[in-house]
Every structure is written in C-alpha cells, then in structure tokens.
Amino acid sequence: MPVTVRSFAKINLGLCIGPARPDGFHELRTVYQTIGLNDLITVRVAKGAGIEIRSADPRVPTDSGNTCYRAVERAMEALGARGRVTIEIEKRLPVQGGLGGASANAVAALLALEKVLRKRLSQAERLRIAAEVGSDLPCFLVGGTALGVGRGEVVFPLEDLPTMPCVIATPVIGVSTPRAFADWDELMARAERASERSTGGDARTYASSGKLTVVTPSDRIKRFGHVLSAWLSDASGASARGGSRAESLLLDLVRTGIENDFERVVFPQYPELRDIKGVLERAGALYASLSGSGSALYGLFRTRDAAKRAVAKLKEAGVPAQVTSTLTRAQYWKKTFN
Ligand code: C5P
Fold first, then answer.
1. Lowest-pLDDT range, 8-17, 86-95, 187-196?
2. Of 47, 115, 136, 275, which one is the catalytic site residue?
3. What CATH number labels 3-158?
4. What is the atom index within ligand 1 of the atom nearest the CA of 135?
5. Reduced to 3 states, what is the DSSP secondary structure of residue 227?
6. Predicted local distance difference test score (pLDDT) of residue 191
7. Ligand 1 center to residue 27 CA distance, Å?
8. What average pLDDT score do residues 206-231 get?
9. Which helix (H) or strand (E) holds 6?
10. Banded model confidence at residue 205, pLDDT cuts 50, 70, 90
11. Element (H, E) at 186
12. Which residues lie closer than 8 Å to 255 by C-beta, 6 or more apart?
C-alpha cells in the first residue's frame, strides 16, 4: 500500500554563522520554525530493486542527487529491506531556497518508507541518516521550534512559539548557499583586517564603523549562544508580561537582536530582497527576515488580516507571496500523517 505524508517547510528565526571548520562546513546557530506550507510525498515499495523518483515538476531532480533518493537509499540499508521504491513528489512549496523544501521532502520520504515497510528506525538512526544527507534535514525530525547547532544538523526541541500568521515571499531569485557562505567568510576576513588596522593588530577587540561589533566568528557565535540562552531562560515568563504569548515570546527574541547573518551578504547582492523585507516591515510584521540563505523571506504578523494585507502589497509589487502560519510540534506531527 502506498503511503502519502505531508512535507512541511521551515523558516529560520535568526541565523548566526560561525567559523569555517576543517570539514569545509561552518559552525552555525539558528532557531528553526516549521510552517504550514507543504509538499506531498508518496512512497510505494514493490518487488525488485532500485529507487525511482517521479515528479510532474521539471525542477525536481529524479536521479541519485535527489535528497529523497539519498535518504531512502540509506534507510533501506539500515532497515535491511529489499524492494523497488518509488517516491512521488508533488511540489506545492515554492522551490525558492531558504524554506528547506528538498530537505523536508527527504525526511518525509524516510517517514513514509517506514510506514510502507511497517519497520521503524530508531530516532538516533533517523537523525544520523538525515544529517548525512544535509544540514537542514534533522530539524524536520523534530518539528515546531527547534534549536540548530553544529553545522545546523544537531537539533534540540525548544518550547514551541505558539502559532502565528506568517507571510512567505518567494521572489524568483536563486541564491547559492555555498557562495553565500564564501561571501560571508570574505566579509569576516575584511572586517578582521580592518579591525587589525584600527587597533594596531589586536583583531580580537571590537571596532567597526563606530559601532561595537564582535569581530571574530567564534566571538560572534558565543554571543549568539548567550543571547539565545538568555531568551530561553526568560521565555517561561513571557506570557506574564501582557500581549499574546506568541507575541511576547517573539518580541523578546527580536529584542535580543537576533538576526540572519546571510542578509549581510545576500542583500547587497540582491537589493530587491532588502526591499521585500521593507514591505513586510511597513505592512506591520512583528518580525521580518530572510530565511536561510534565501531567496525566500518571511514576516510574522499579529493577525491573519494583517498578513493578507501584506501579501496584497507584495503582489502589487510583483512578488509572489502567500499567507500561512507557524506550526507547533504537535500540529506538525499530526498534520504530517493526516
Ligand atoms: O549540508 P548542506 O547540503 O545543506 O550544505 C550545502 C553547502 O552549504 C555545503 O556544501 C557547504 O558548502 C555549505 N554549508 C556550510 N556550513 C553549514 C551548512 C552548509 O558551509 N553549516
């Protein structure tokens, strides 16, 4: 019997890029948040061997480079299962980067495969396979609000932000993630050189255009960690400070100065993305940001009506956009299988 599961997207509530590591990846810290936009993944297993990917969307690769292929290949081996696996991908999500679409598809394929075979991997095995396929996959094995550390693949469930209306803007621009990381390294190297010049060689002190800014990538990531832990330890008191609980938690997070580092390299290259963030902010977003390395952006709103008005404004400006909402962990898991 075929099994169909929903494959939900994510946004990043802040993303801090740390130093490049010997394995070529960057240390990072982020808060993942699942949202209600989804693709549909159907898995069948018949007699035979091999993995076949089907999709009506020509942008979806159907070879072994597809994340679903790589996840299912590893899962079949880990489960000691045989058969010909067919994975059908019904793309509903915008393919623009930043929403983790391909990563979510792979996790959905893995979960559907387990159901079809009536076999289960341990959560540790699932997380291992997910991390092998890509840094963004493991967050979809947690869902809701989750902290991502390491290269983004080590995930910890956080207390959920309550559901909030969310606008997703998907401008037709492709941002290369490896290139964005490389641009970030170049930016940091330039800042360090400038700091060395202005401090007589002490690159560890803070100096940049009159503002106090932590210069080294490892200092920055430490600071982000402190900011996040301050927010988390304070989060339980947020509802007591008036306003809705979702709003207080989110505003507390925003006040900590959380931001997405990729904006600093992606916006100068694609100024229209900065403009879209401006539209979301002027339309009343409590918080607006690039998601991942983009080009998708999001805005979180107090009401669905405000979110709808923001979508209308974006569409007037020729930017594809839609309203959805954030998903708590319980909603994420319930809707994945129903
Ligand atoms: O893990 P994933 O396949 O998503 O990574 C894509 C590329 O992005 C990597 O090959 C690497 O160049 C870059 N990357 C990175 N640091 C991370 C995650 C990704 O440099 N933490």
1. 187-196
2. 136
3. 3.30.230.10
4. 1
5. helix
6. 83
7. 10
8. 70
9. strand 3-20
10. very low
11. helix 177-198
12. none
Hey, which residues does 200 pair with through a beta bridge? none
Q: What is the DSSP string of 107-125?
A: HHHHHHHHHHHT----HHH
Is 174 in contact with 295 (CB distance < 8 Å)?
yes
Closest residue (by CA) to atom 14 of ligand 1? Answer: 25
Q: Tell me the average pLDDT across 213-223.
A: 76
pLDDT number for residue 211: 47
| Sole residue written with tokens 């540790």 | 124
Two structure tokens written together for 173: 């621009």
Spell out where 208-272 has E strands: none
Amino acid letter for position 98: G
The domain locations on the chain are 3-158, 177-213
Alpha-carbon torsion, ordered 40, 45, 141, 67, to 10 deg: -70
Cβ contact 6:90 at 8 Å: no
Q: Is the CB of 261 under 6 A from ligand 1?
A: no
3-state secondary structure of 87: strand
Tell the residue number behind the tokens 């991908």, with chain if given: 89
Distance of alpha carbon 298 from alpha carbon 280, whole angstroms: 8
Tell the residue number behind the tokens 């990381």, with chain if given.
Answer: 181
User: Global pTM?
Assistant: 0.91
Handedness of CA 89, 127, 45, 66 (dihedral sign): positive
What band does 237 get if pLDDT is binned at 50, 70 and 90? low
- How many whole angstroms separate alpha carbon 299 and alpha carbon 290? 9
How far apart (Å, rounded) are the C-alpha atoms in residues 88 and 253?
A: 38
Whether residue 295 is preceded by a cis peptide bond, meaning omega within 30 degrees of 0, is yes
